UniProtKB/TrEMBL annotation:
Keywords: ANK repeat, Repeat. Gene3D superfamilies: Ankyrin repeat-containing domain. PANTHER family: ANKYRIN REPEAT DOMAIN-CONTAINING PROTEIN 39, ANKYRIN REPEAT DOMAIN-CONTAINING PROTEIN 39-RELATED. Residues 113-135 are annotated as: Disordered. The keyword Repeat applies. ANK repeats lie at residues 13-45, 84-116. This is Ankyrin. It comes from the Eukaryota. It comes from Rhizoctonia solani.
Amino acid sequence: LGAGADVNITNDKGLTPLHYAASKGRVDVGKLLIARGADINAKDRANQHPLHRAASAGHDAFLTILLNPPEGRPKTRLNTGDRLGNTPLHLAFDSAHAAAAVVLIEAGADRSRMNADGQTPEEMDGVGGQEQKRAREYVIQRCGPA
């Protein structure tokens, strides 16, 4: 980066370095990339932003840095759907990442938005079983019913 590398360079899947940092939860790298001008709303070929990546992996701390960009920078597009219509909140629920879902809801994520299958985030089947049930219960306990 110090030598002038493009922080928004993409690979054949349209992924930027910020997408990768979000997937891995590398807050230190994410902060550096954002400080150097990384586009927090960059879309990959699946129409996913770094926020989608952080949500699906359950990286709440990374979500927080994306949801609070430096002053003067564009706001994160919180309710953008990917090519299947899934918002970051859909993906957090799908992976049973309750804490990530709470971060998104508290930031204003739309709990009633439907994906291409007509499902709201809380209707996602995801991993299923007790883990999914506990995640939904945790979100309702923290944020109330949808």
